[in-house]
Specification:
With 399 residues, the chain is an alpha/beta fold. Helix 8 packs across helix 15, helix 11 packs across helix 13 and helix 12 packs across helix 13.
Length: 399
C-alpha cells in the first residue's frame, strides 16, 4: 500500500541538478519517494546490503559504469567512495553539454542518506554545486488524513509518522519504536558520532521528550543526565541535525539576543516522543497530563513537515516576554507572517498579542488558533480557528 507523499506533488525534476539527495531519518519513506518518481529508476543500488557496499567501496567507478541513469543509490553514506565517481560522471556530462550540446540528465543520480554526520563528512567536498538537497520527514497529518480521513488524533499521536506503522497496522507501535530507538538513534547516530556513553545519551533523549514544548535549560538537562553542559548541547544538536528533534528559537528583532535566549524543544515524530515518555495506551493518550504539550508538539511538527515537504523557505520562532506574554509559533515567509496559538481544547477566550517588532516589518500578518477538532471558522476579527487537519492547506494558501 502506498500513502501519497506531498513532496512528489511539487517536485520538478527539470529544475533539479544532476544529483538529488533526500536526507532524513531511517524508515520515513525516502527510498519509496525516489522509486515513485518518473521516470522510474533504471538501476538501483542498496548499500545496506554488505555485498553491494563492499563492491561499491572497492571499485566504485566500475560499479557505476555498470548501472544506467536514472540511478537510485540508497544510504549513500555507507559507501562515500561512490561520491567521487558520481562527481566525475556529472562533470563529464557537463563537458559534453558544453562541447557537443548534449543535454545533462537532471536528477539522474537519486540518493538517500539517513546519517547526517556521515553525509557531512564527505558530501561537501565532492558534490557541492552538483546536488539538490531535500529534507524529508515521516508522514504528516496532511498526508495521513489524505490517505484516510477517519484517522483519529490519538492514533496519530501514538503511531507517529513512520509509514510502516500505517501500511502494516498489525505491527505493535511500542515494539517498533523501541527497536527504532535502539538501532537508529543509539547505535547509528550516537556511535557514528563517537559517543561512548550510550546510556547517558539515551537518558538525555528521554529527558528531552519529557520536556517537549518547554524551554530547554541545558545545565538542568546535563545534571539530570549525569553529563556536562557541553555534552548536553552537543548531543541535542546531533539529534537535531539527524531530524529527531527540533529546537524552536525565540523571536527577537536583535539577532544576538535571539542566539542567547533559551529555545523550546520538539520531536519531529510524535510517536517517538510518546514512546520516549513511556505511554502505553492509544485510548488514554489525550487524557494524560502531557496531552497539551504532545498536541503542541504535533502542531509544530506539522508546520515543519509542511515547510520541508513543500520546499518552503520559512523561518520559525516563538515569542515570549518576561511578563510571559507568548505566541506559540511564528512562521515568517518573504511576504507573510503567520502567528499561531495552539489549543488542545476550545479556542474560545483566546486573546492574541500582536508584537510591534512584527508589525514594523510591513508584511501581511495572519493570526490563527490551531485546535484538535472542529471546523475552520472565524474566531474574531482577524483571527481564524484552524483544526490541525487543515493546517497544511492554511499555511500554503499565501506562502
Amino acid at each position: 500500500m502506498w500513502i501519497k507523499r506531498d513532496f512528489l506533488s511539487i517536485f520538478d525534476q527539470k529544475s533539479a541538478l544532476e544529483a538529488i539527495l533526500i536526507r532524513g531519518p531511517r524508515q520515513i519513506g525516502k527510498t519509496a519517494i525516489l522509486l515513485k518518481m518518473t521516470p522510474e529508476p533504471n538501476s538501483k543500488l542498496f548499500l545496506d546490503d554488505p555485498n553491494e557496499r563492499d563492491r561499491a567501496t572497492r571499485d566504485p567507478e566500475f560499479v557505476l559504469s555498470q548501472l544506467k541513469l536514472p540511478l537510485l543509490i540508497d544510504e549513500i553514506q555507507r559507501a562515500p567512495e561512490l561520491l567521487f565517481s558520481i562527481k566525475k560522471s556529472i562533470d563529464e556530462q557537463r563537458r559534453l553539454r558544453l562541447e557537443n550540446n548534449v543535454a545533462t540528465i537532471p536528477a539522474g543520480f537519486r540518493l538517500t542518506g539517513s546519517n547526517q554526520t556521515e553525509i557531512d563528512r564527505s558530501l561537501k567536498e565532492t558534490l557541492a554545486g552538483r546536488v539538490s538537497l531535500f529534507r524529508m520527514h515521516g508522514l504528516s497529518v496532511h498526508e495521513l488524513r489524505g490517505h484516510d480521513s477517519k484517522i483519529e488524533l490519538n492514533e496519530i499521536l501514538f503511531r507517529g509518522g513512520f509509514p510502516e506503522l500505517w501500511v502494516r497496522p498489525e505491527l505493535n507501535p511500542i515494539s517498533f519504536l523501541n527497536d527504532y530507538f535502539s538501532t537508529f538513534i543509539e547505535k547509528d547516530i550516537a556511535r557514528t558520532a563517537g559517543i561512548e556513553k550510550i546510556f547517558a545519551f539515551s537518558t538525555l533523549t528521554r529527558l528531552l521528550a519529557a520536556r517537549v514544548g518547554e524551554l530547554v535549560n541545558f545545565e538542568s538537562l546535563a545534571r539530570d543526565a549525569g553529563i556536562s553542559g557541553n555534552s548536553a548541547k552537543e548531543w541535542t544538536s546531533l539529534l537535531e541535525k539527524n531530524g529527531i528533534v527540533f529546537l524552536l528559537k525565540p523571536y527577537h528583532s536583535n539577532l544576538n539576543k535571539r542566539l542567547i535566549k533559551m529555545s523550546k524543544v520538539y520531536f519531529i515524530d510524535s510517536g517517538l516522543c510518546v514512546r520516549m515518555q513511556s505511554h502505553q495506551e492509544i485510548q488514554t493518550i489525550l487524557n494524560t497530563p502531557q496531552a497539551g504539550h504532545l498536541f503542541e508538539n504535533l502542531v509544530v511538527a506539522e508546520a515543519i513537515k509542511t515547510r520541508d515537504h513543500f520546499c518552503k523557505n520559512w523561518e520559525m520562532h516563538f515569542w515570549r516576554t518576561k511578563e510571559k506574554e507568548e505566541i506559540d509559533l511564528i512562521i515568517e515567509s518573504d511576504t507573510v507572517i503567520t502567528l499561531i496559538e495552539i489549543k488542545l481544547g476550545s479556542a474560545r477566550g483566546t486573546d492574541m498579542i500582536l508584537p510591534s517588532a512584527l508589525t514594523a516589518k510591513g508584511k501581511k500578518i495572519r493570526q490563527a488558533v490551531v485546535t484538535a477538532i472542529g471546523t475552520r471558522s472565524a474566531l474574531q476579527e482577524g483571527i481564524e480557528v484552524i483544526p490541525i487537519r487543515d493546517l497544511c492547506d492554511y499555511l500554503l494558501e499565501v506562502n
